[in-house]
Each structure stands twice: as C-alpha cells, then as structure tokens.
Amino acid sequence: MRTSFWPALVTDLQDYWTPSKWLLCLGFVCTARENNKRNEKRSKLEAGSRWLEEHRHTILYE
Asked: What value, to the nearest 5°, has the Cα angle with vertex 50 and ends 47 and 56?
C-alpha cells in the first residue's frame, strides 16, 4: 500500500506518460506560448494604431 501521495503520483506518471506523450504535451504547450506571444504583439500594435488614429488630428494640425 502506498503511504504518500507524491511517490504514488510519480509512479502513475511513469506508468502512463511515455516519452512520445511527453513530447506531444510539450508541443502543445510551446504552441500555446507562441500563440500568446503573437496575440500580445497584435494587441499592442492594434492599441498603438487606435491611439494614432485618435490623436492624428492633434499630431498633424497642432
């Protein structure tokens, strides 16, 4: 009988998570991180474009 949660969890992970499953999971995590970075850049660019559009008249004519 297992006495502690963590050794049981590690044993279960070793039994279930094969190297190919780890790599697949890592691929999903890396893809999600890249998508988040891309979305953050897009959001910043869109915010900058909105700001320029809102202040264009002030910048050009004052």
From this structure: 135
